[in-house]
Amino acid sequence: MNDSVHTQALPRPSGRGLVRKLGWLVLVTAVGIGVHLSLQEIIQSGDAEKRQGPDLHKLEQLEAVDPARAAKVRAGMLKYESICRLCHHRSGIGGKFTPPIAGKTEEGMQTLLKLYRSGVQMGPLTNLMAPWAAELSDEDISNLAAYVATL
Q: In whole angstroms, what separates CA 138 from the centre of its chain?
């Protein structure tokens, strides 16, 4: 019996296989760059008014009338600014690739967010929206909906 270990050489990728792998790498890189540039365009689009922070004047007026409701709206505003504004803009007008949400009712917004969170296919942008909604608690959804209703 021979104690030597027999090894087989692994097949080398053919020129065509190497080109195919390189092609996929170039494609994935190009798509990544395209997405990055599109997001930068979304962020930079519009006039200065659209890039400003939230309308605090509305919130101050609400605080004078209904402090408890204003606290809920403020919490929703903070969450909106941290995760929603990038795509839907300060005033909820949406962008080239995202729908407007301004003008939605509080109940309607809660329903949409809960459907996205549950993974229901809502349209072509569900795959972009669902991961964000999946991270939201019921309280977050309630607060966000209260804020969006003020836009």
A: 18
Tokens describing residue 3: 């104690």
CATH at residue 143: 1.10.760.10
Q: Report the alpha-carbon distance of residue 27 to residue 23 in Å, rounded.
A: 6
Other C-beta atoms lying within 10 Å of the C-beta of residue 101:
23
Residue 53, C-beta contacts closer than 8 angstroms, at least 6 positions apart = 81, 90
With contact defined as beta carbons under 8 Å apart, do 141 and 117 qualify?
yes
The domain in which residue 70 lies consists of 50-148
What global pTM score does this model have? Answer: 0.64
Helices 67-79 + 138-148 axis angle, to 10: 100
Structure tokens at 121: 């296919």
Mean pLDDT across the stretch 102-130?
91
